[in-house]
Every structure is written in structure tokens, then in C-alpha cells.
Prior knowledge:
The protein has helices at residues 4-14, 18-27, 95-100, and strands at residues 36-38, 44-53, 59-66, 75-78, 83-85, 88-90. It has a single domain (4-100), classed as PRC-barrel domain (SH3 type barrels), CATH 2.30.30. It has 3 helices and 6 strands. The radius of gyration is 13 Å and the shape is globular. It is 25% helix and 28% strand. Strands 4-3-2-1-6-5 form a 6-stranded mixed beta sheet. It is α+β, with helices and mostly antiparallel strands and 109 residues long.
Amino acid sequence: MIKPRHILVAGLAAGVMLAFANLASAQGASGLEGREVRAADGAVLGTIAKVITGPDGRPLQVLVQPKGARAAGPRSLPYKALSPEGDRFVIPLSKAEFDSMPAVDLAAK
Length: 109
């Protein structure tokens, strides 16, 4: 059964966020790194550690390093799921949902 929240995330990933895409193109992918990411309820999740771009140079995925000393590796999120809010981003997930996502193993080849 598909949950409404999953439909929302898929819709955001499939939707076009023209204003944000123009901002990202203007500042480049590296301008996204280090920016804070928050949950829909405002909880701080972490910061963007790396941006994965497509052949055209536009961001496709972001790796978000969770906040906290005991946090596991970064989580991969679709770039289009990020909504700009001031100088940070918000994703349509709760902290529990974000924390339950598998960590990306950057050492894997």
C-alpha cells in the first residue's frame, strides 16, 4: 500500500521547482554544500555534504550528513525533494523517517 507521504515525496521529486533550479544553477552545486536540511516539522536533520550532478551539471541527488556525533553516514535524497526556506532546505519527511533511511557507504566501489 502506498502511503500519502510517499506520494508527496514522489510528487515533489517529479515536480519542477523552477525558481529553485534557477537559484542552484546560478550558484552552482558547490553552493549547496554545507547548507542545513530540516524535517517538515522543523527538526534539524543535518547538512548537505555532497551534491551529485547529472551530465548537464544540474544537481540530481544530495548526500545529507545527519547531525550528531553518533550519526551514521549520509543519506541520499533527490535534489527536487528539497524546498528552499531562507538559507536552508526543508524535506517532506519526519526526523524518524530520515533516520530510518539507509546510510550511503562512500567507501563502497
